[in-house]
Design a protein that fits this description.
With 309 residues, the chain is of the alpha+beta class. It has helices at residues 17-24, 131-138, 155-166, 168-171, 176-191, 202-219, 228-235, 239-248, 253-271, 276-282, 288-299, 303-308; strands at 3-8, 33-35, 44-51, 54-61, 67-72, 78-86, 89-93, 96-100, 105-109, 114-118, 122-130.
């Protein structure tokens, strides 16, 4: 079901506006680190609509003239597509610079900081999209950083986004989220269809997916609910697809997750300083007896003997 949230600095005390802006995040509650903080003239408004694993944010900002911001989203699982709606924005990421005029569009990687400079009241739309799903349609996203799709190339995407945001009740109907997400992803791919790039070989694409899933598992080992369903929800794919990725690695989701947890547990036990039970819970085992059985099966000894040897 579509969820829409609205925020504005209008009723916020002037000297607290940037702190408020930091807390809400520019895109869908993502942790945002903005440096430097603009002067007291800053004002901003934000509307975020979430469609399942995707979201669309409408951002309006009126920073002081010439102010440049360094923004870090700390999000390696998503890519952000910025569509300029009014005014201009100068963006820089990975040493690549692009100026967005009204109607223009560019790609930003959530895993790396970027700089934005605004000289006037500016309004833009930001799509937050699961990186694997975009990469599967577009290919190597790094090549798109610092490039701008023209207003004519982005016209269909822009039109759909404005219609979507203007007709919230239609988008709220049950079962629409996944369909809306598929349309947005297809329109992003269509927008960049003419951007020159070397074709992505299928084996390389598969290897990139495998690495994406493995990296996700390693970052979330401590979460007991880690499994095919959680991975699928966070990466914006189906549980069946996640199972296929692990099958291509010659294993299953549960076996791979359990193996990585046990490897991490063994490393932590070797370092010392923690009780066995603390280590077990830290790496995601909610059942201590199951952890003991699994550890013994994997390493041939109990956790305590493993530490003592």
């Amino acid at each position: 079901m579509t969820i829409t949230e609205r925020f504005s600095t209008v009723d916020i005390t002037v000297h607290e506006r940037m702190s408020f802006w930091d807390r809400i995040g520019i895109v869908n509650n993502a942790p945002v680190d903005i440096r430097p903080r603009p002067a007291d003239l800053f004002n901003g408004a934000l509307t975020v609509s979430s469609f399942g694993a995707l979201s669309v944010a409408r951002v309006t900002m009126t920073p002081p003239h010439g102010q440049s911001w360094e923004i870090a989203l700390h999000d390696s699982e998503h890519v952000f597509v910025q569509l300029q709606d009014h005014g201009t924005s100068d963006l820089e990421q990975n040493g690549k610079r692009v100026r967005l005029e009204s109607g223009g569009l560019t790609v930003l990687l959530g895993s790396q900081p970027y700089r934005i400079s605004i000289d006037e009241t500016t309004r833009f739309l930001v799509l937050k999209l699961p990186l694997p799903r975009v990469a599967a349609r577009v290919g190597d996203l790094a090549r798109l950083v610092g490039t701008s799709a023209s207003s004519s190339d982005a016209a269909l995407l822009s039109s759909f986004l404005h219609t979507l945001l203007a007709q919230e009740e239609l988008a709220r109907r049950p079962g629409r989220d996944e369909a809306v997400g598929d349309v947005l992803l297809d329109l992003v791919a269509l927008t960049y269809h003419g951007v020159p790039a070397a074709p992505v070989p299928r084996p390389a694409l598969g290897e990139r997916w495998q690495q994406t899933v493995r990296d996700f598992v390693d970052r979330h080992l401590g979460e007991p609910e880690l499994g095919a369903t959680m991975i699928a929800e966070r990466l914006g794919v189906t549980p069946r697809y996640v199972q296929m990725v692990f099958a291509s690695l010659g294993t299953t989701t549960s076996a791979y997750v359990s193996g990585r947890r046990l490897e991490l547990a063994a490393t932590l036990l070797q370092r010392g300083g923690e009780q066995v039970s603390d280590v077990a819970f830290r790496v995601g085992f909610a059942d201590l007896s199951y952890f003991y059985r699994s550890f013994r099966k994997r390493f041939g000894v109990s956790p305590k003997r493993y530490v003592a040897r």
